[in-house]
Amino acid sequence: MDPDAVAKAFVDHYYRTFDVNRVALGGLYQDASMLTFEGVKIQGAAAIVAKLTSLPFQQCVHAISTVDCQPSGPAGGVLVFVSGSLQLAGESHTLKFSQMFHLMPTPQGSFYVLNDVFHLNYA
């Protein structure tokens, strides 16, 4: 497994999906998954998708600045740290964000998000 390739493929898929169809992100999470969104902890795929789809905007575009990753433990996980900006539809300014994912392998050979931490960066 090449952690850099896993991270790049995951980040491309995650943000492309987020920008056009947030409901489809549900397949990336499991019942044990946890999202910390601006300090609020949410557990389970259904609750995470409910949170992501309840955000007060319908359309956005992510621009990724950096993707850093590391292999994580003997189970074959991958830590992924992303920074970038978020452009909301109808807004002239962008919002800077940071997001960390802990990806874990599935028996089928794909990965799911065990941990997800998102923060807007206020300067």
Give a verbal description of the structure:
The protein has 123 residues and is of the alpha+beta class. Helices cover 22% and strands 49% of the residues. The protein contains two helices and six strands; from the N terminus they run αββαββββ. The protein has a six-stranded mixed beta sheet, covered by helices on one side. The mean pLDDT is 93.
- The poorly predicted ranges are none
Percent helix among the residues?
Answer: 10-25%
Distance between termini?
37 Å
**Tally of contiguous helical segments:** 2
- How many strand segments? 6
Content-based structural category: alpha+beta
Q: What would you call the quaternary organization? A: single chain
Spatial ordering of strands, largest sheet: 2-1-6-5-4-3
Specify the biggest β-sheet.
6 strands, mixed
Query: Radius of gyration in whole Å, from Cα?
Result: 14 Å
Content of β-strand: over 45%
Mean of residue pLDDT? Answer: 93
